[in-house]
């Protein structure tokens, strides 16, 4: 009603009531097999065409996947990502002129350690998924969530992206590929005209060398994680007090693992299987979590925040209804794996609450999901403050988005700080400024209240104020709900210490720096 | 063992703050609440010395608390403002006449001058008459649009520099959520601003000093200070779309109390892509009020009401603006579409 472009001229005309004996609205010759949205009836053949066309159109319109590139498909086993896998498989195997031209691999993150599943259940699920994956013939990477404890700190750095991206070079890349003739197998991920010693390649090799974990090669199965790692994971997740924070943390760790796998196996892009309905829920949920500044990266088609690895979401135009119909009618196999919010009450977490709210509203107002989706297309990510320093200090430690906690006086963030200050007595002893916080492990939790906001509850270790200044608004809320910050994986803690040291160094020499360098 | 106030650490805590969860005694809570409003005013530079400020008073809890707090802060921090109360009578029997009684009582209590403007005298229609014509579904649109213009016209009559309304944090958060659900990108960008831009003739800036105050805290404040206010819901409100956003926000607050501030924070940090079409501010050709179309919304709504075509203002009818301005009759087809929908 309040939209600029909406016109209610026709709203009071009688709408045709859909019925089963209708004809397909596209070919008008076969009888309709299903109805999507309000009145679009399709027959089987037309529906399949429509579905496949949408996938190709999404990839083609955005021109981000270059031919010959290695692309990692993040499959969770659920209907949307299984559908995506089927589309990719189909698209590669056909002999049509519009054949998809990239080199895929599959990654599956086994989260059983966090969701409380037993080893047998996890192995069974993995075996089921493997049988589906092996039918596609793509390289498979099974990664356990416990491997988060052996990640290198470089995961949290946004490496500079590969120098591509304009339409001109896309066309150039396509032409080159066609001229070379389509050679299958391991296509190179770099452009042939790159000079020697290209910084990006070096970075990728460097990062790969830093990996301390063994990522399995294609068909080799990974052994189950050690009990020490499982215990560490359990301790981490049980120290998080609310389900909201747990889900947020799980998603962050999952993303880090996927990005790391992509880097070490030299994939340039990752495809995620988020559907339109899921993204609408995510958008509304992220607003409730305080992630307004990064809505565009979280729900848009492309997610450039990791720099060299770009996440794309080709399924974002499909509603969950369309996906469900397609999977059923064309036999796409999917495996149900319980997650953190399976069978919890409606108000257990913000994400779950948002999901039930949107689905309920959708029944009364059928355009809810599509309206929210269109809103997400009109947003962009604001440039963070301090774009110098290669954006390092200006990016959140956990979610890698630009920090939105500026010291702008007239803002909700400032108001929360003021409320906190006014509601309690300020700590009487102030710790010596800055130096006290930077010694790393083995330090007792002295009050670091003076460093940040003046509120440091007594049962937390001194790590909490350290991390807070490096995090964006919503990651701060997640860490606030984490009782034992020390149980976070070591790569996060070491990276945090490193950044604090860098910024302290920078402050000491700030007056002598002539140029903003990208250290 | 009684809990001690976490601020002064002496008196016994009488309440738990919904915003932060801390337990405070009465005096510390009053002080914290008032100082937060003061901080909001100062950090956003809402007022300048010597201004005349009209407080939009409906007799409800928000405007009662707003009037009280502004008076207290004006004295305590020497803002140097001249305050007065401005009230709007929509003509809803049983609801508005009772709340106006409360406003008159407030006027006597706070010793502030009061002006009441009514829909009847400004537009010739009361809300009851409008609902009879429009039905129960879209009447909140009429009330909201007319009230805003009524506030502005009243402010111009009184020659004030600013208007303050009692919108609280819950209202703003609901508005953000509602605008996302409705897909209204233009309003989404503007709705978290603490003060309207107020350029152009005839537009008095409106600001919201209680922007970061939770509704529950406002009620707590009014309760402990024994301020009296009128607390019945508008009889026409249950059918509004905003109710969905409000229910969702209440649930969010139950899961995580800071969710209200988080939503406002998200709303403030959104940024819209360039190239998205936005409405441009101009003036109405008929009444001269600010408008982004040729005819402002209230002229459209009035036209619809006067001609017996109540749906004229609901939804956008760009093509019809020209026709209406030129006083041409509408075709039968168009008239049929614009008549009231039978329930």
Automatic annotation (TrEMBL), chain B:
Coiled coil: none annotated. One of its GO terms (cellular component) is cytosolic tRNA wobble base thiouridylase complex. Residues 282-312 form the Cytoplasmic tRNA 2-thiolation protein 1 C-terminal domain. Its EC number is 2.7.7.-. Pfam families: ATP_bind_3, zn-ribbon_14. Keywords: ATP-binding, Cytoplasm, Nucleotide-binding, RNA-binding, Transferase, tRNA processing, tRNA-binding. ATP binds at residues 56-58, 62, 88, 166, 171. Transmembrane segments: none annotated. GO terms for molecular function: ATP binding; nucleotidyltransferase activity; tRNA binding. Residues 53-233 form the tRNA(Ile)-lysidine/2-thiocytidine synthase N-terminal domain. InterPro entries: CTU1-like_ATP-bd (IPR056369), CTU1_C (IPR032442), Ncs6/Tuc1/Ctu1 (IPR000541), Rossmann-like_a/b/a_fold (IPR014729), TilS/TtcA_N (IPR011063), tRNA_thiolation_TtcA_Ctu1 (IPR035107). Its main location: cytoplasm. One of its GO terms (biological process) is tRNA wobble position uridine thiolation. Plays a central role in 2-thiolation of mcm(5)S(2)U at tRNA wobble positions of tRNA(Lys), tRNA(Glu) and tRNA(Gln). Directly binds tRNAs and probably acts by catalyzing adenylation of tRNAs, an intermediate required for 2-thiolation. It is unclear whether it acts as a sulfurtransferase that transfers sulfur from thiocarboxylated URM1 onto the uridine of tRNAs at wobble position. Belongs to the TtcA family. CTU1/NCS6/ATPBD3 subfamily. This is Cytoplasmic tRNA 2-thiolation protein 1. It comes from Paramormyrops kingsleyae.
């Amino acid at each position: 009603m309040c939209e600029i472009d909406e016109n209610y001229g026709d709203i009071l005309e009688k709408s045709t009531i859909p019925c089963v004996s209708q004809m397909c609205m596209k070919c008008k010759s076969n009888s309709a097999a299903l109805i999507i949205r309000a009145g679009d009836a399709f027959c089987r053949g037309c529906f399949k065409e429509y579905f496949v066309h949408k996938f190709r159109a999404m990839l083609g319109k955005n021109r981000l996947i270059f031919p010959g590139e290695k692309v990692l498909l993040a499959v969770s086993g659920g209907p949307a990502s299984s559908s995506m896998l089927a589309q990719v498989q189909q698209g590669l195997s056909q002999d049509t002129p519009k054949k998809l031209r990239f080199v895929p691999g599959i990654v599956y993150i086994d989260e059983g350690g966090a969701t409380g599943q037993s080893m047998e259940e996890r192995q069974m699920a993995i075996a089921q998924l493997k049988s589906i994956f092996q039918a596609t013939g793509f390289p498979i990477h099974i990664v356990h969530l416990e491997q988060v404890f052996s990640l290198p700190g470089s995961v949290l750095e946004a490496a500079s992206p590969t120098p591509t991206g304009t339409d001109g070079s896309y066309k150039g890349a396509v032409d080159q590929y066609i001229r070379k003739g389509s050679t299958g197998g391991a296509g190179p991920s770099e452009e042939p005209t790159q000079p020697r010693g290209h910084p990006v390649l070096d970075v990728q090799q460097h990062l790969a060398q830093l990996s301390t974990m063994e990522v399995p090669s294609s068909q080799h199965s990974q052994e189950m994680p050690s009990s020490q790692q499982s215990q560490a994971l359990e301790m981490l997740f049980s120290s998080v007090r609310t389900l909201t924070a747990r889900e947020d943390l799980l998603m962050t760790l999952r993303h880090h693992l996927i990005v790391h796998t992509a880097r070490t196996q030299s994939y340039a892009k990752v495809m995620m299987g988020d559907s339109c309905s899921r993204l609408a829920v995510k958008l509304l949920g992220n607003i409730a979590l305080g992630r307004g500044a990064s809505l565009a990266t979280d729900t848009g088609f492309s997610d450039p925040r990791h720099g060299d690895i770009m996440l794309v979401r080709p399924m974002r135009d499909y509603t969950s209804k369309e996906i469900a119909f397609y999977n059923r009618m064309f036999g796409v196999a999917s495996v149900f794996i319980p997650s953190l919010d399976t069978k919890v009450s409606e108000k257990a977490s913000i994400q779950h609450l948002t999901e039930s709210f949107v689905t309920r509203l959708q029944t009364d107002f059928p355009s809810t999901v599509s309206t929210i989706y269109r809103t997400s297309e009109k947003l962009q990510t604001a440039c963070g403050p301090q774009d110098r320093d290669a954006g390092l200090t200006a990016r959140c430690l956990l979610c890698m988005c630009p920090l939105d906690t500026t010291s702008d006086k007239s803002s909700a963030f400032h108001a929360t700080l003021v409320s906190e200050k006014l509601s309690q007595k300020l700590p009487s002893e102030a710790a010596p400024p800055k130096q006290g916080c930077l010694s790393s492990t083995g330090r007792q939790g002295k009050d670091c209240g003076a460093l940040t906001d003046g509120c440091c509850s007594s049962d937390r270790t001194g790590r909490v104020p350290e991390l807070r200044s490096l995090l964006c608004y919503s990651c701060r809320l997640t860490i606030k709900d984490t009782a034992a910050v020390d149980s976070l994986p070591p790569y996060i803690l070491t990276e945090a210490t490193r950044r604090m040291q860098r910024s302290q160094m920078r402050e000491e020499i700030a007056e002598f720096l002539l140029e903003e360098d990208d250290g | 063992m009684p809990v001690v106030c976490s601020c002064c650490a002496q008196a016994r805590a009488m309440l738990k703050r919904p915003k932060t969860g801390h337990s405070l005694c009465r005096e510390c809570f009053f002080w914290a609440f008032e100082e937060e409003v003061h901080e909001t005013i100062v950090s956003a530079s809402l007022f300048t010395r010597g201004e005349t400020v009209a407080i939009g008073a409906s007799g409800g809890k928000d405007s009662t608390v707003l009037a009280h707090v502004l008076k207290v802060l004006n004295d305590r921090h020497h803002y140097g403002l001249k305050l007065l109360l401005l009230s709007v009578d929509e003509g809803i029997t049983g609801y508005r006449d009772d709340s106006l009684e409360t406003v008159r009582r407030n006027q006597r209590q706070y010793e502030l001058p009061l002006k009441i403007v009514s829909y009847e005298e400004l537009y010739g229609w009361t809300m009851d008459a409008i609902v009879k014509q429009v039905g129960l579904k879209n009447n909140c649109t009429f009330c909201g649009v007319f009230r805003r213009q009524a506030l502005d016209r009243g402010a111009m009559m009184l020659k004030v520099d600013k208007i303050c309304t009692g919108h609280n944090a819950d209202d703003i958060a609901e508005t953000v959520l509602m605008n996302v659900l409705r897909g209204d990108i233009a309003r989404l960008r503007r709705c978290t601003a603490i003060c309207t831009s107020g350029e152009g003739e005839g537009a008095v800036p409106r600001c919201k000093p209680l922007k970061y105050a939770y509704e529950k805290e406002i009620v707590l404040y009014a309760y402990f200070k024994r301020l009296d206010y009128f607390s019945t819901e508008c009889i026409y409100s249950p059918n509004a779309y905003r109710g969905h956003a409000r229910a969702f926000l209440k649930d969010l607050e139950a899961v995580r109390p800071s969710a209200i501030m988080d939503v406002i924070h998200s709303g403030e940090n959104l940024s819209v892509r360039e190239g998205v079409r936005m409405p441009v501010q101009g003036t109405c050709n008929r009444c001269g009020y600010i408008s982004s179309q040729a005819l402002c919304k209230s002229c459209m709504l009035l036209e619809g009401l006067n001609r017996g075509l109540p749906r004229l203002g609901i939804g956008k009818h760009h093509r019809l603006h020209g026709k209406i301005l030129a006083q041409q009759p509408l075709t039968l087809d168009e008239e049929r579409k614009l008549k009231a929908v039978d329930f």
